[in-house]
Amino acid sequence: MRPAELPAQDDGKQAFRAVMTAASARTHVLAVVRGNWDTSGRPPAEQAVTDLLLVTSELVSNAIRHGGGVVAFEATPARDGIRLTVRDRSPDIPTVAFGSGALPVGHDDGGGYGWPLIIKLAYDIVIEPCADGGKAVSVVVPLGTGPEPTG
Fold first, then answer.
1. Residue 4 has pLDDT above 80, yes or no
2. Is 95 exposed, middle or buried (0-12, 13-18, 19+ CB in 10 A)?
């Protein structure tokens, strides 16, 4: 598998899709949710999917803007949600990733809203250096279920 390509669900067949942008990452994440999450007949709550897509966009955008680009992207089902993992080329660990999640008062320090949103919407945040350079950022975004089906 080449860097930045991930297997995607396609009617049970293994396919590969390049994930180089936030848009392509969101498309991949939606395919994972549709193909793997709804095993109980209750789809994830709409707000939970919106939160998942926001976290996906923030992680991928950070890798592009601050990490030298996306090297690899994964979205895998977790016990109560989706684990997102983004690898980039920078070894720098963002210190705000382990902050309080408070929104910045201003943009004077170069910080934005991305990490505070990730901290509020995800858990199990892990940032590890990669043996071949760069780092991997991994989070779990919970997916609550929607209302009981009627009928």
1. no
2. exposed
